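Cont'd.
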Amino acid sequence: MPHLPEHLLAGYRNFMNGRYLTESGRYRELAREGQAPETMIVACCDSRSAPEAIFDAGPGELFVLRNVGNLVPPYEPDGEFHSTSAALEFAVQSLKVKNIVVMGHGRCGGIRAALDTNSAPLSPGDFIGKWMSLIAPAAETVSASTFMTATERQTALERISIRYSLANLRTFPCVSILEGKGRLSLHGAWFDISTGELWVMNKDTGDFERPVLE
Ligand SMILES: [Zn+2]
């Protein structure tokens, strides 16, 4: 007997009777033609910051990579297991996406963990600790700022980590070459869960600003 939590089965029923019904032609076309999304989103695993919901995206529109803290590690072709780099490689080299958006969000638990270095690992493997140590230098700098409140430090590191990931994206030769040719553009965004506000990074200044919506 198939076994899945009831709320997932209920959601799937709604999907088949709703969205799939109205978009079945699109799904069939995507199955036939393959996917060709123009945009890759690097987002956090956080259940409150789903890119498809925030950008109202249909099937085939967004190639989404989610990991803890929406981090992109630096380019390291060392034969280890690099899931984020694998997704990036596929998006850029095979799908030939035109945009990559690194989207952080408010109240990020991963970022909070990076700031709170005194807390015990969640398991002996301390996978989160190791992963978030990517931004340890930035976290130490932000933590040292005694004039900031805890909330301000959290928001600051959430936004710094987006700039950090964008800088790491450019350490991948395929990304920097295509960006140099004008065939790929990189973007930063930060989503405020409590208000629904999306702040977009200004390419020239690195500041996060509210876009003017029509
Ligand atoms: Zn998060």
